[in-house]
Amino acid sequence: MIVGEQKPLEEIKELIGEAEKVLVVGCGTCVTVCFAGGEREAQLLASTLRLTSQVDGDPKEVTEVTVQRQCEWEYIDPLATQISESDIVVSLACGIGVQALVERFPDAWVVPGLNTTFLGLPQEQGIWLERCQACGDCILALTGGICPIARCSKQLLNGPCGGSHDGKCEIQPEVDCAWHLIYERLKRMGKLELMLKFQPPKDWSTSRDGGPRKIVREDLRVLPEEGY
Ligand code: SF4
Ligand code: SF4
Question: How far does the centroid of ligand 2 lie from the alpha carbon of residue 220, in Å?
Fold first, then answer.
């Protein structure tokens, strides 16, 4: 899932500035699961903004709404009236949701209430860990399902650096060395020969380095009927 955390209240207040009618929009998917921008957080932020704006002597009209997913048109289209009646929209979705609102409602001023941080998973209650950097050419089959791109601090592809020590990465004693994990995993699975398979320099053009990416599935597209 996409993991993010809410911006500090002072920063959100600064983004809102002089605007009087504020609409806080939560998202019911990834950012709900990471307790950053779901219905509960949208309600909490809206009531905090109402309260603090009164205390600051600049009372604002703050309303909130949460949609199932801010990154799909059908879920955000019903917001048209509420958005048109607001001076500013504070999106508590990831950066994709913010941009979806901007694309669908070009006359609205939409600001992010979250810092979108990574693709990851909850390790335990209250702790999330990065697991994927969406490189566009997955190599997990070679590494026993452990991603050296997201989890090795140097994104090494042919084994560990000299800084691996007692299974930990040299950057911080509490960070696991990804290549130590890969080694242990391959050993356990009887596939250590994969460690010796030379990985040529990665073609990063499938990642963000190749510019904005796009997927087209012709089999899923709804094309206009002939004659239209
Ligand atoms: S190899 Fe690429 S796609 Fe696969 S988990 Fe790592 S970053 Fe994600
Ligand atoms: S110690 Fe391990 S995880 Fe850290 S940079 Fe070196 S190989 Fe990567």
Answer: 41
Q: How far is the CA of 59 from the centre of ligand 1 (A)?
A: 47
Task: Compute the distance from residue 135 Cα to the ligand 1 centre, in Å.
Answer: 5
Does the beta carbon of 157 sit less than 6 angstroms from any atom of ligand 2? no
Does the beta carbon of 177 lie inside 6 Å of ligand 2? yes
61 lines ligand 2 (CB under 6 A): no
Q: Which two tokens stand for residue 51?
A: 């309260």
Q: What is the pLDDT of residues 20-41, one digit of tens each?
A: 999 999 999 999 999 999 999 9
Kindly give the distance from the C-alpha atom of residue 203 to the centroid of ligand 1, in angstroms, as a whole number: 13
pLDDT at residue 226 in the model: 66
Flag whether the pTM goes above 0.90: yes
The confidence band for 2, taking pLDDT boundaries of 50, 70 and 90, is very high
The answer to whether 26 and 65 are in contact (CB under 8 A) is yes
Condensed to tens digits (0 to 9), the pLDDT of residues 211-224 reads 999 999 999 998 87
